[in-house]
Amino acid sequence: MTADATRHFSVDLQGRVAVVTGASRGLGAAIVRLLAHCGATVHAVARGAEELAALAADSANIRPWVADAADAGFHAALAAMEVDLLVNNAGTNAPMPMADVPDDVLDRVMGLNLRAAYLVAQAAVRSMLRHGRGGAIVNITSQMGHVGSPGRTVYCMTKHGLEGLTKAMAVELAPNGIRVNSVAPTFIETPLTAPMLADPAFRAFVTEMIPLGRIGKPEDVAAAVAYLLSDAAGMVTGTSLLVDGGWTAR
């Protein structure tokens, strides 16, 4: 997160312990940097040790945690620590026509985007219920959790499912002071989207579909996440904040 990107951001997360999955690059890294800038102690979770070490060098508030978001050992460790904030960001995509999706791709995308996200959220909730201070969770979904798109049937299915999970968790956990929301970005410039956006025709299509006329930056998503985790969003739960430049408003 550059100085220009954080200069006017005033959300206060001092004293909060946050966990961010998929944290080593792209959206996750931007979210980690901003939460740390806002004062949270941020446990940055990913499989890439070198990338996490580089990220941790940005702030004394960032704690690298080399782990797989789908691993049962990580879920147990997360449930055992004291967590105030969770950003469920780890995810993947494998665009292809529905008729061509093999079982292994179906299982891999569903396993990370939905099953692992559920188990990570469950572990964080167990921590929050035990320490009794409430908490806030943000699930990173997608504009594709609100609409459909050719070549993305599995991805859309998982993101629609994560939106449903967000709502159900919000209703169930509200009496415990735990807020649950989602942030649903459009196409953002990240390593995951780079191969798709490298195609000039696809990039032109995406830009045309976004009324604001530009592809999003990771910092656009990070700002929405920080707001939803903060006390400024104290009456916001069970909703999806679309960071899509107006794509789904058409």
UniProtKB/TrEMBL annotation:
PANTHER family: D-ERYTHRULOSE REDUCTASE, D-ERYTHRULOSE REDUCTASE-RELATED. The lineage of its organism: Bacteria, Pseudomonadati, Pseudomonadota, Alphaproteobacteria, Sphingomonadales. Keywords: NADP. Belongs to the short-chain dehydrogenases/reductases (SDR) family. It comes from Sandaracinobacteroides saxicola. One of its GO terms (biological process) is glucose metabolic process. One of its GO terms (molecular function) is carbonyl reductase (NADPH) activity. Pfam families: adh_short_C2. The keyword NADP applies. This is SDR family oxidoreductase.
